Each structure stands twice: as C-alpha cells, then as structure tokens.
C-alpha cells in the first residue's frame, strides 16, 4: 500500500508535535491546528496515517505507539522543566541534579560539571541544600553510590573548597604539570582515574593555579592535557570544566542539538542554559561561535520549538 | 560548657586595647594585666579588642604581643586571642608544615569540630594562607595518611540525629570484615569514617560492639606500634567521645609522656570556650584530682597563670 502523500498542513502539525526532530513542542501551532481542523475529522485521520512513529495501523484504525507517547511527554515537559529549574534556588538545583545522577542511570559527568564549574561558595551551598533535602551529606551519597574507580575522584571533587584568589606558585605549577604528564604516560597497576597524584592535583589546587599548570603542560609537551587524556571518562571532563567552563558548556550544547542525541544528552541543553544564564552565557556564546562557526541563538532557534525555544532564547539572549 | 569566666561588666574594646598597650609600655611587660584582660574575654570581644587596637595604634595586637612575651606563655596567649576558626587554621597549617604520623591536630580539627566549624576553618585557611586546607594536607602527607586525612578535613557531615539502623548494621559488618582482614586503609573503611554523620557512626560502632564483642577501637589496637591504626583510633574517639579523647591528651601531656609538644596549650585554648568544663570533670573522675591542681603542679609562671585563667580561676 502506498503511503499517502503528506500534505503541508500535516507536516506542520507533525513538526509541531516534535515529529521532525528538534526539542520541545510548538504549542501555538498545535492550538491553531485545533481551530483550523474543527469539524474536519478526515484531517485528523490523515495526520494519523502520515505520522509514522506516533501512530501505527492496527487492524481497522491507527493506534498510538507507547514509545512515542513517552517521548512526547518529555518534549511537552521541556518548558515546564526549564521554568521550574529557573525558579529554583541554584543550590537546590545542583543538589537535586547530583541526587538524580546517583539514583538513576545518568552520566557521572554531571557531578563533575557541578563540582568543577561552580564557585567554591556555590558548591558549599549545594552541599548545604543537600543536607536539608536528602538528610545525608552530598559526599556521603557520592561515596556510597559511585562504586569502583570513579568514587575517589568524585568524592574529592565534590568535597573541594578551592582557594579562589589569584596567587599561584609558578614552580609548583610547572612541577605538577610534569607529574601529570608522567602519570598519564606511565601505565601503572591502577587506572589513571585512581592515581593519587592526579587526584590530588586536580581536586585540591585552585582553578587559577590549574589553568597555569595546563598551559605549561601544553607548552612543554606540545599537546594539551585534554588531548593526552583521550577517552578517560570523568578525568577529561574534570580538566575541561576546570580549564574553561564556557568551552565545555558549548560542547555539551552542541551534542544536545545533534541528530540522534539521547534523552540525557538532550536534557543537558536545559541544564546548561538555566544554570549558566546568569553566570557566563556571553562567554559560552563566544566559545560556541569559535568552535562551531555559528551563532548559538540561531542554532537554538532552528532546533527547538514553541515556548521551550522562547524560554531558551530569553535566557541565552542579551 | 565553657570554663571561661567573664566579669559582669566588661570595659569597652578601646579601653581594653588601651590597657593592653600600657601593659607593653616601657621596660618589661605586665603579664598579669594581659592575662586579666584577654583571659577573661569572649571571642567576639577579643576580636573587637584587636580591631580597636589596630585602629588606634596601627599595629596588630598579636604582633605587639610577639615582641613582648615568649615561650609557652606567648603561644597560649596567641592561640587564645585568635578567633576559633583562625586558631584552628593556624594550628592546621603548623601541623601540615611539621607533619609527622603521630600528629593529631588535623584529626582533632576534622573530627571534634562541628561541620559548620570545620567549614569556617577552611574559610579562615583561605584567607590566611592563600591556599585551601585540603590542598596543603594533600601535598604534605603521603600514602595511607593522605587517604585518611584529606577526606576527613574535606567532610561536611550531615548534622542531624537521624540514624538508619539497617545501614549501621551493614556498615558495622563491613568494618568488621575489613578490620579482621587487616585492610585498615580500605576505601570502604575510610569512606564510612570520613563521610557518615556522627550520629550514624555512633550507631554503627554501638552495633559493632554489640555484635562482635569488642569495640572498634579494641580491634584496631592489634598492633600498638602502627601509627596509622593509632590515627584511626584517635579519629573514632574524637567523633564519639571528644571529652574523653581530650582528657587523655591532657593527661599524657601532664604526665610527661609527651607524644606531642604544646598539647596542653592546644587543648586548653581550643576547648576553654566549648567543653573544657566537661573535660575537666572527666579528668577529675579519672585521676582523682582537679585539673587545676595538676596544671599547677606541671606548669609555672605566666604560662600557668594563663592556663588557670582559661580554666575559670579568678585572678
């Protein structure tokens, strides 16, 4: 049986339902379709026949696919999520994100992101909020729920209270760059993510100090430490977040807007825009432009829909 | 409870500052005056006096003191005058620079203070030393001690009295397993000790005692020469019964079994505004002698007078 031609009208509604990709749903277009198609059930029938993925033929009618209903739930909820997160206290936001990561199958780099891109006071605030919300300390839960190799690194990252002044010790930065190189290049019995010296340097030194260390590393060894870390999960994110949050965040955003991104990767877009809107949005846009040659606002406009898009652009705009 | 005695009416900070300046004036120093003022003022007052002194004489009070007094007396006055958080930061920095496995200062600060107090110490450390406390501890300690101490000083324990008994049981069993297997530096052991709330730890150790017949510390005593085990035991005692821990430190210092220098000064100055009363009570019970007597017998001169003032003796 030949598939019916999809009319322009139908395609518009399919797009509004997030059926052609993009994050969020176009609420206005959906509401206007309600109005336009009044007393025209054949238009709805045509939609159901054209909207492969949402509906599937089942005998004498088209039924909904459960998977798509779940997918739609997420897409409709993007606007709700961004608004609730925006209203929430940043400390509660961060505490809740860490808690989610520990209790659901979510990538550990969210913990790295929070531990390394927040200021020392903001991280302390998240720990206070965690006490109040979950009746445990943040580090207690990270230590308990993250097992094996990554536990030590992550516990130390979330427990850090880094010095925030600009004073650095150049000789120390130099010698620690060398120590990092030696740890990376010399395969030990334990994995790199458990290496005591690597952990010590990355989890206790101040951020200005580490930036000088990374700079020296690149000058001395020709490649950035990030490149040498290759595929090392968590360690690579740690270095990226400590070195330049805007660069890191622009990468996360880029991944979220790619085709075929999974749910967690897509959710990162909301997380980044909401948590950075008041912090370094300008720098993230610059970094995005530098890395991908496009304006972040344009890319968001093209790849998101409805109120969700409007919310993102409001936060990411001037 | 504090042993510090403050007079009913206290002169203004600038009056106190003026009197202190007089104590330094001319030849010699009026130590008794220094003790009678500083030894009877709260932390907030002492801070105000330092501010007033600095405003009027354009010099830090502690710097002036440094030029006028010395030895144990100076150390006691310096430590006492500092804010609690600054004091702990100062002591921590000294401990880090002169690190030895037998040093207990970091353990005391990390385990006997409340979560909030420990965080205030970390803030004071930033301000004074331009580095983080954990950075220095990590850089100056090695091996098992670093594995234990860095998490301890970085902890921000939940402070409520809630206890999860199921968890206490399972973690007591885990501890017993690791201790029996002599895996004292095992990640799980350190994780439990360094991250659980104090109430949860007390419940865990109680269960351990009930279930396995020995207290945790008894089982950790199997090698009396092992410094790491001693550190673990000290941490546990600071968490569970700080007053008994500090009584022992004072007792060892007074009996001349000096495991550390300056222990007596440290305990008296850090506890006088907190729980020195309870510690003194434990001391009296255990040694059948009031702490004041023991101090009188073991110390002399201005140093003795300062310690006694902090113990609440009137001038």
TrEMBL record, chain A:
It holds the Pfam family Annexin. One of its GO terms (cellular component) is plasma membrane. One of its GO terms (biological process) is response to cold. It comes from the Eukaryota. SUPFAM superfamilies: Annexin. One of its GO terms (molecular function) is phosphatidylserine binding. Keywords: Annexin, Calcium, Calcium/phospholipid-binding, Metal-binding, Repeat. This is Annexin D4-like. The lineage of its organism: Eukaryota, Viridiplantae, Streptophyta, Embryophyta, Tracheophyta.
Automatic annotation (TrEMBL), chain B:
It holds the Pfam family Annexin. SMART domains: ANX. GO terms for molecular function: calcium ion binding; calcium-dependent phospholipid binding; phosphatidylserine binding. It comes from the Eukaryota. One of its GO terms (biological process) is response to salt stress. One of its GO terms (cellular component) is cytoplasm. The keyword Calcium applies. Keywords: Annexin, Calcium, Calcium/phospholipid-binding, Metal-binding, Repeat. Ca(2+) 3 binds at residue 298. Ca(2+) 1 binds at residues 24, 26, 28, 68, 254, 299, 304. PANTHER family: ANNEXIN, ANNEXIN D1. This is Annexin D1-like. It comes from Phoenix dactylifera.
